[in-house]
Amino acid sequence: MIEIEVILGVVLTVLFVVLFVARNMMAKGKAEHALEQEAISAAASRLKAAEAEQQEEPQTVTYVVEDVAVDSKPQETVKAEKAHEHHKNLPEDSMLRRHYLTHLRTMDEALHDSRPTDSTLKRHYDTMIEKEVEQCLDDDTALEKLEGSYQEEKQHPLKGKVKKQLFAEVKKAQEATNIPEDSMLRRHYITHVRAMDEALHGDRPTDSALKRHYDTMIEKEVEQCLCDHAALENLECSYNAQKQHTTRGIVKKQIHAAVEKISKIPEDSMLKRHYLTHIRSIIEAEHDSPQPTDSTLKRHYETMIDKEVEAYLETEIS
Predict the structure, then answer these.
(1) Angle value at C-alpha 141, between 136 and 145, nearest 5 degrees
(2) Same domain, 114 and 144
(3) CA 260, CA 219: separation in Å to the nearest integer?
(4) Cβ neighbours of residue 147 under 8 Å, at least 6 residues apart?
């Protein structure tokens, strides 16, 4: 009996605790629901007040629509209009302003040569056109001068054709001398021409007066090669001939050094084979052309090398 009473007491205690916790949770949920309802009603009241204010002030809606219209334009056009919006010769309407700027740029570009392809020259060209357009927007005299030059260009297109022919001739002259348009490539090209010219002359003198005359002479010859294609070809031919002659001299020195080290063909078969291979490689290095791949030419080439090796062994070692 005592155990049954204890069990019943424990069960009743647990039920009481569960009921108490459930009641607290229900009360808490009701409180949170009430807070949410209050927040929703407050937000609704604020929204209604904002709508009422917007209805009372219609200018705010117009301002927002104008901002959206501006943002829908291309970014470059908006930047150009903002950059030129304070000039006195510009129309107030955005579309008219854009067409007016395009018209000015077209007139200015018509008076210049075609837009270059090099990135650096293209950037300088665009900067020059932009400055001239801005000058026309601020100065009425510059604007009248631009319009007059453009009208004269339209009335007398032959002058423009003559200018284009002159530019074409200059471009052909530059292509004839193979001068690159890129600044870095042009600098390396001029340095290469100067190095070839200096290789044909003696060493640079140490005396200040002679050094000055030497530099002046080199500068004149380089300028002549850059302007005259024939002079450039002569310089390249002379440089290649001197380079070939120098290579042959080095090869001959190597042959004589090999002869001094070995005065006769070794008797041992392995040493003899290595000696003949060494002599053959030196003689082959004296020829500028590599060994041909064609079977017939290859056979003639090897026969020629063999004869030169035999002639060398007969004349130098015997």
Answers:
(1) 80
(2) yes
(3) 45
(4) 107
Best CA proximity match to 233, nearest among 224, 244, 245, 243: 224
- Domain ranges, residue 274: 263-317
Which residues have CB under 8 Å from 160's CB, separation 6+? 153
In a domain, 106, yes or no: yes
Q: How many CB atoms lie within 10 A of CB 232?
A: 20
Q: H or E segment at 289?
A: none
105 with 133, same domain?
yes
How many Å apart are CA 104 and CA 109, to the nearest integer?
Answer: 9
> Which residue in this structure is represented by tokens 């510009």?
90
CB 158 within 8 A of CB 164: no
The whole-angstrom separation of Cα 126 and Cα 76 is 14
Distance of CA 277 to the CA centre of its chain: 50
The Cα–Cα gap between 136 and 130 comes to 10
With beta carbons less than 8 A apart as the criterion, state whether 146 and 107 touch.
yes
Q: Is residue 29 part of a domain?
A: no
CA distances from 121 to 115, 124, 146, 183 (A): 9, 5, 23, 9
| Token output for 52 | 């009422």
Are 110 and 157 spatial neighbours (Cβ–Cβ below 8 Å)? no
pLDDT digits (tens, 9 = 90+) for 90-141: 777 888 888 888 888 888 888 877 788 888 888 888 899 888 888 888 788 8
Q: Six-digit token pair at 89? A: 């010769």
Give the tens place of pLDDT for each residue, 244-296: 777 666 666 666 666 555 556 677 888 888 888 888 888 888 877 778 888 88
Are residues 92 and 167 part of one domain?
Answer: yes
The whole-number pLDDT of residue 260 equals 56
